[in-house]
Design brief:
- This protein has 112 residues and is mainly alpha-helical.
- It has four helices and three strands, in the order H-H-E-H-H-E-E.
- It has a three-stranded antiparallel beta sheet.
- A hairpin with a 7-residue loop joins strand 2 and strand 3.
- It is elongated.
- The mean pLDDT is 89.
Length: 112
């Protein structure tokens, strides 16, 4: 029994160390978001912006379908997704492509 107790304590210690590492990563993320001017975006807006930035390459547009299917957004409901997408366009983080049909966006530099 004593050995099981010791293993349990080691497991709890390892878990707490992992949580501590996550806390440090979260603080780093928040600091980076502040420095880029992203701190005022909602969590869903930030995730859409991150996904769009990842999917766009060299100024190419991003399709709505690609965003909806991105792993960062898989748990976001469609209505919430489209509200946040519209908000990002209004705020200037994304802009609609006018050269093609709807559903395509360009990623703009973060606003300071």
């Amino acid at each position: 029994m004593a050995n099981n107790f010791g293993n349990n304590q080691l497991g709890q210690f390892a878990t707490m160390m992992e949580i501590s590492k996550l806390a440090e990563l979260r603080k780093l993320m928040m600091s980076m978001e502040r420095s880029l001017g992203l701190q005022d975006l909602s969590a869903v807006e930030r995730d859409i912006y991150y996904a769009a930035s990842e999917l766009s390459q060299e100024g190419q547009d991003v399709r709505t379908v690609g965003l909806i299917e991105h792993s960062l957004l898989e748990s976001v409901s469609r209505p919430t997704f489209f509200r946040a997408l519209k908000s990002l366009v209004t705020k200037g983080y994304l802009s609609q492509c006018h050269s093609v049909n709807r559903g395509r966006y360009l990623v703009n530099e973060p606003l300071d």
